[in-house]
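Record type: monomer structure entry
Structure origin: computed from sequence
Chain ID: A
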Amino acid sequence: MPATALLTALRAGTVGLGIGWATDGVTGVRARVLSTERFTALVPEAHPLADRAELSATELSAAALRDLLLHAAADATPEPATLRVD
């Protein structure tokens, strides 16, 4: 269920509990943190970010996108796309 629909249903009383990502500024419901997670970035020892003690979300996003594009380019095959119509 999309978050907006869940909030609407909670406010209307048609559902009694919703679990999702916490957001600021939500009114008409009460929220409690259920869990906090510590995420770890794993990179090969030779990776440019390997020696960093802390990383920002921007640095991780840029590195992940760069790596994804490099791997996609390396794995790309020159086969033409096909479309099957039944």
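Annotation 1: The chain has a mean pLDDT of 78.
Annotation 2: The longest helix spans residues 57-75.
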